[in-house]
Recover the amino acids of this structure.
């Protein structure tokens, strides 16, 4: 890839492929679900387009690869990079599995679809003025958007840039 800005650091985000629950619109956080055959194909097709020597994601030029500990994320990594590429990244200690990238904890809403969540909340007298919204209302016994955003920002600043930011927690929350 010819790129006048090829020395500029970049961050690439790759979401895991389809699981049975993502196919059905179910909130999936901590539940371990494998990729479906369609999910594996989604990742493989992505890999064919963007991963490889001279492509957007050139494994030889990656400084670090951060991966969620969830099985679906591990499977995605294993499909995105071929065996040789994955082994080279691992041998070079460039692959970091981190809870900072783990999916939301959806609490009581794990495995449910939006309509089910709204019906349950409505039955309990909640959300009389407007329907439940994950970004505004969070998840009962789970995480709220502010916490998830903070973890993502903290992980990005601290690990991707390699700069400890002890003041971030104090100034954000």
């Amino acid at each position: 890839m010819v790129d006048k800005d090829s020395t500029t650091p970049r961050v690439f985000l790759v979401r895991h492929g389809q699981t049975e629950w993502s196919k059905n619109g179910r909130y999936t956080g901590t539940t371990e679900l494998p990729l479906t055959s369609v999910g594996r194909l989604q990742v493989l097709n992505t890999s064919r387009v963007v991963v490889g020597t001279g492509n957007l994601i050139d494994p030889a030029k990656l400084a670090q690869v951060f991966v969620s500990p969830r099985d679906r994320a591990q499977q995605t990594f294993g499909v995105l990079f071929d065996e040789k590429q994955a082994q080279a990244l691992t041998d070079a200690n460039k692959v970091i599995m981190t809870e900072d990238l783990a999916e939301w904890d959806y609490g009581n809403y794990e495995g449910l679809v939006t309509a089910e969540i709204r019906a349950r909340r409505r039955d309990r007298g909640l959300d009389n003025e407007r329907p439940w919204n994950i970004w505004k209302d969070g998840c009962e016994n789970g995480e709220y958007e502010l916490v998830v955003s903070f973890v993502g920002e903290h992980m990005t600043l601290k690990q991707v840039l390699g700069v400890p930011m002890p003041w971030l927690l104090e100034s954000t929350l």
Notes: The radius of gyration is 19 Å. The longest strand covers residues 65-67. The longest helix spans residues 145-160.
